[in-house]
Amino acid sequence: MTATCPQGHSSSTDDFCDVCGTPIGAGPAPAVQSAPTPAPTTAPAVTAPPVTASPKTCPNCQAANAADALFCEDCGYDFATGQLPPPPAQIDPISGRVLAPPGPPPVSAPTPPPLTGVDWVAEVWVDPDWFAHQQAAGSCPTSGLPTVVPLKGTVQLIGRRSSSRNINPEIDCSGDGAISHRHAELSLAGGQWSVKDLGSTNGTYVGDPGTFPDDQLPAQQRRELADDERIYLGAWTRVVVRKATDAEKAAS
Question: CB neighbours (10 Å) of residue 115?
Fold first, then answer.
């Protein structure tokens, strides 16, 4: 007798298949389930790098600072108020007392070049009264005779020297640290001198003798100078433009 197992084999026995061992009376073997196909994964989104703000340049020392910096890391310049920090207090090692902050080094008046028939000169003064009127930080140098600068051209730069930036102003006020490198400009037209602030940090002021102005000149706007008017700038600098004397014209 021949039997057929659920798998389709011919078996000589009718209880279990003598080929595969499957019970003859059992139903067909369960189908083998294939493993589920994993769902496709989505690649993570690529995030654009953050935009980095440009560094902030200190107008006092030209050092580069972070865009959100409140103070210059090199000189302590306050970007919000435009002021420099006061010099640190000094402690007397013997008495332990706090000494007065050191003032700026004595200003040595540069030797002016010989005058060769110039018609105009600029007097650069140390003005303690202007220093006191502003209540400027630090201390004011001792005043004395002015530095007389011959005005040989029709355009004269007022400011402080900078070797790295190749700035060499005709009216050099390097002793006053509150003056910008390119602070103001004098110009002559039709026998009349004018002054223009070049966007300085601490501003340029014009006033009559005996009075001190409180309103600074608008930047990049020329302002004609009347006779005897004075230019005030920095912590203690006063500039007066006047006609050269006969001796100054003849000097060589």
Answer: 21
